[in-house]
Amino acid sequence: MNIYTYSAARQNLASLLDEASKTGKVIIKRKDGSIFEVSPAKEINSSPLDVPGISINTDQDEINSILKEIRER
Q1: 64 occurs within a structural domain
Q2: Is 69 inside a domain boundary?
Q3: pTM, whole model, 2 decimals?
Q4: Is residue 9 part of a domain?
Q5: Per the structure, how many domains does the chain have?
Q6: What is the spatial order of strands in the sheet that 3-5 belongs to?
Q7: Are strands 35-38 and 3-5 parallel, antiparallel or unpaired?
Q8: What is the C-alpha separation between 70 and 52, in angstroms, rounded?
Q9: Three-state SS for 39?
Q10: Helix spans in 12-47 (H)
Q11: Distance between alpha carbon 73 and the CA centroid of its chain, in Å?
């Protein structure tokens, strides 16, 4: 694991990201002494809006009657 200055990291971002993907993380240190860790993120293959479905074991006629009852209220 290497430690880079902010300026060096900015100038060599592509190679820094390659190194982070190979080694697991890279450290960047600013002039003020603050330290940041760059590490590869897990791949996101789905939308955050994707939710699993549920089985309610009802047929179309029952759903229609429930909706009709709700609308009449």
Answers
A1: no
A2: no
A3: 0.55
A4: yes
A5: 1
A6: 3-5, 26-29, 35-38
A7: unpaired
A8: 25
A9: coil
A10: 13-23
A11: 42
The reply to whether 14 falls in a domain is: yes
Any idea which residue has 């309610």 for tokens?
56
Q: Determine the Cα–Cα distance for residues 16 and 26; give it in Å rounded to an integer.
A: 7
Residue-wise pLDDT tens digits, 16-67: 999 999 999 999 999 999 999 999 988 777 788 888 888 888 889 999 999 9
Nearest residue to 62 via CA among 53, 70, 54, 51: 70
Domain limits for position 21: 1-40
CATH number for the domain spanning 35: value is 3.40.1620.10
Question: 20: which 2 tokens?
Answer: 């982070």
Residue 8 exposed, middle or buried by CB count within 10 Å (0-12, 13-18, 19+): middle
Distances (CA, A) of 14 to 8, 18, 30, 37: 11, 6, 19, 15
